[in-house]
Amino acid sequence: MSPEWVQMMARYNGWQNFSHYAAAKGLSDAERRADRGAFFGSIHRTLSHLLWADQIWMSRFDDGAPPECPISQSADMVKDWEMLCHDQAVMDQRILTWAEGVKPEALSGEMTWYSGAMDADVTRSRMLVFTHFFNHMTHHRGQIHAMLTAAGAKPDDTDLFFMPDNPPMMAPG
Fold first, then answer.
1. Is 54:137 a contact under the CB 8 Å cutoff?
2. Centroid of chain to Cα 122
């Protein structure tokens, strides 16, 4: 793992969110909220959980504000579609800014945090935690991609090697 890998994954995250949110915008609100059998049920609820997870991990990485609700409420954290789009765009920029500042020494050692899901303090290697951060995004985006496709939407390819040199990102607003 290197700072360049972290930065690449942050760009990939932003690019994939751009693709998935653009595809989801083409659906009706009812289609985005329909239970499609995924872990969090709908496209909207899965996107809300993903934003929650981004917020909780980034609060541990950059000491910014954590989400205002526990993980048990993450899928319903942001009910309004436009607000969800805005908040994710802001988060994607926060992740990219953080990634651009990662130095090699930030990848070594361990970090400790309180996990509400485990109700305990947890200590793990930074490389494992950063890998989990990006892997968690990919895991749920795979679910979102499948739900979008089943709904007739057309998100972009997800293969990392298809990512443009300067991938498009969502803009707040």
1. yes
2. 21
Longest distance between any two alpha carbons in the chain, whole Å: 47
DSSP state of 133: H
- CATH code of the domain occupying 3-160: 1.20.120.450
pLDDT band for position 173 (cuts 50, 70, 90): low
- Torsion, Cα 156 161 165 167, to 10 degrees, reads 30
Instruction: Provide the 8-state DSSP code for 124.
Output: E
Per-residue pLDDT tens over the stretch 1-16? 999 999 999 999 999 9
> What H or E segment, with its residue span, contains residue 123?
strand 120-125
Classify residue 113 as left (phi > 0), alpha (psi -120 to 50) or beta.
beta
Task: Using the CB atoms, write b or e for 74-97: b if 16+ within 10 Å.
Answer: bbebbeebeebbbbbbebbbbbbe
Cα of first residue to Cα of last residue in the chain, in angstroms, is 34
Does this model's pTM top 0.85? Answer: yes
